[in-house]
Please model this.
Amino acid sequence: MSKATIVVGEVSADGVNKATLECVSEAKRAGADSIDVVLFGKGAKEAASGAGSAGASAIHYVEEASYSLAQRAATVHELVAAKSPGLVLLAGTTHGKELAGVLAGKLKAAFASECIEVRFGDDGQPRALRPIFAGKVRARVKLNGATSVATLRPNAVPISTDGGDAPVSDLALSGAADGVKLTDSSAKAASSNEVELSEAAIVVAGGRGLKGPENFHLIDELAAPLKAAVGASRMVVDAGWKEHRYQVGQTGRVVTPDLYVAVGISGAIQHLVGMQNSGCIVAINNDPGAPIFKVADYGIVEDLFEATPKLTAKLGG
Amino acid sequence: MKIIACVRQTPDTETVVKIAGDGKSTETDGVKYIIGPYDEYALEAAVQIKGETSGSVTAISMGPSRCTEALRSSLAKGADAAVHINTDGAESDDALVVAAALAAQIQKMGEFDVVFTSTKGSDSDRGAVGAILAEQLGVPYLGLVTDIKVDGGQLTCQRDIEGGTTETFSVSTPVVICGEKGVRGEPRYPSLMQIMKAKKKKIESVDFASLGIDASLAKLEIESLELPPERPPGRIIEGDSIDAKLDELVRLLKEEAKVI
Model:
């Protein structure tokens, strides 16, 4: 079976997306014979060469007028027919997940999502490690068939930088737009300085211990000197203090930052499954019996209203 | 609008998950099954949109006989009809097999406007079936939708993508839509009256074998299951004062954990 791999990714104003570079790096670690990277997004042509250092063998940028899942899927499907890869790997972002699913449908391919590791086996078939039951268990899966599809959870693997230059060429967008038409794409006003939660190296999250939305600034203020993303527990989101996209937990995001600071979060299992694989966990809570202290590497049993601003000050915020 | 809502049972989220003796499955003894928590949001969206378009909702579930509980619950919450694809003895959780079976059944049910699926099963954490189903049915797909507005025969859907951007789509039917948690708010609790009425409704039962799905479609194979690595025990930072504790924390984060 072929170990040729196609990585499908995106670019942003900052260049090739971190999650895409992670996929290229993982494909290399997986033992791919060749890695063709397809890049979508505004500015793909300008940013394309950036995928070389992570290990791309060839880079193809696609110019599109507007986001169309149908057209992206048709474009990648054609490239798959031309290259017959053993694996198509995408980042587990919103766009990546739906494109991966549609491709798996078109190819009737094995599809492993939210993987934290991908490797080609000696028999040439890809294998992956993926969390199930909200991370309580992990499954080692084998993807059978000529071409498989997988998505890689963002921030789960390191980015390689020992690749070199790779040839860059343009790839024409295929297919036709369908009944799902993008009519607007706008950044939320507050978010231009926001660190993306799923990619952040540091996350500061607030829970019900904050007592009200008017106190959430304590979280923002602690996040600032750490250049951290802000997260929230389910209680905070259900209470309407923060929007769902900030939610960390079983029915929110699963994050794996190097440092996770849980402020006023008790640590219910549904929250833990969203952050328990963080590199280092700090908890600030005035209840010594709070379950969060069982997973925290460092615990501060103090009133968060005193501790959080003091910690912010000590960090230079 | 004629709406179909896909629901599935998953183990209760409080379940202590144990790896079974074969090393590649989880123990099912004593496990309590519930309608998938994410599916509840998709069903709620289906029922609300039915109301806004004077339409109908058919809930469909594939699985063993206990699935009828999830379908009863769906009827109580506003589904007008329910179909059970009974897999008793032939359970398959493979996304390609499930999507093929759902597609085969849905195609027998005539034209539809929207098929709602949820973001993922709380056990498999996959989120695969919706998109694959859309391909099988030959209709467009839109994933992870956080807001849906109805305007005549058109739907306007929104979702957030990474980086804080909100995308808005104008969506024509037929379509498969995957609804995020809270897409149409929290799922309703049915009244006792609705629960009683639901008990009297007929759930159509379809034998999985009758759909003629080729079992060799299944391509994802679980080779083994393992527990995540255990975290070494952490510690509560002691100190004479809150400042002393925090100074120690900053020191540890810099020197020991090396994360700042």
Observations:
- Chain A is about 25% helix and 30% strand.
- Chain A touches chain B through 95 residues (CB under 8 Å).
- The longest strand of chain A covers residues 4-12.
- Chain A has a mean pLDDT of 94.
